[in-house]
Amino acid sequence: MFSSLLWLLFSSTVIARTIDKCSIYRRQDGPVDPGIPSDCTYYDTAVNKLYDCTYFEENWGISHAQFVLYNPTVLEDCSGIKVGNFYCVEVNNGQAPAPSSTSSTPPTPTGNGIVTPAPVREGMSTSCDAFYFVKTGDQCLTIASANGISLADFNTWNPSAGATCNGLWADTYVCVSIIGVGPVTTTSAKPSTTSAGNGIATPSPIQTGMVSNCDSFYLVKSGNECGTIASSNGITTAQFYAWNPAVGSTCSSLWLDTYVYVSIVGVSPSPSTTTKAAATTTKAAGNGVTTPTPIQTGMTTKCKTFHYVVSGDTCATMASKAGITLANFYSWNPAIGNTCSGLWLNTYACIAII
Q1: Which CATH number does the domain housing residue 215 bear?
Q2: Which of 14, 302, 315, 327 is the most exposed place for a label (fewest CB within 10 A)?
Q3: What is the pTM (predicted TM-score) of this model?
């Protein structure tokens, strides 16, 4: 009799857990945060404060890295989870992206006559006439720059990559040109004299809206990013954006083979030396890891590995070399901002946490 009661209790528990599990197998019908992949196939709701990263990851059999990748606003420490919001717990029906392949599919459905390779992401422009195979470590901005297109065009033609590039998948093809729009040519014009009357010859071409008191210029080459240009010329990214407003606040409109301003009258660039500051023995929040100095404010107290920022470093390149996502890098180093505009030379940044 006692064993029968135990069996009945066990069976009821299993059934209840099964019903509860099935109840969350549903598509999104509530609030979500930005950055969730467009090919998310299942969502789960944060019903109360007990619904943390561990809950989602254990119930859905996904890793912490996957959960944060699918839902970048939750942040690495899961502090961004909001009660009542829906969170992505599965993409592409649980299937990984198709393996890399050099074979081609039939011409695109629009009948434009261009053979489209596979695999590609959902939503890619049907007018695409040139493709790039994404490799591990690639970033949207570097792909765009290397192919002579703006980041804005890249995002328009490849919407699945996301506005912050968190949806860029390795071993898939992305669009880098569309019919009727070719890459920027590499021919540079001869310098002309400035019309601002400051006595400094301004080369051309330049983008509109640049400040009138510039006294030093840089010709943008393939592969350049705003952060690397600023860093290599001893200025902050914030100064670069202020002096070159046409490039946009996220560098999405930086043009190849145009001149940008890297110094203005009365402002001297910082010296290019990268003498390191001696590390201190200060420990962060009792985690047992020695934190070097100087660091920027707000850096996570869970950091276990640090990178010394030198001229030419960008947030994207540091994250790529460390094998972490750009979202994680920004989360662990909040003073840098989400566009890398606050990155300081000769300071330490966090690139791994406990």
Answers
A1: 3.10.350.10
A2: 14
A3: 0.34
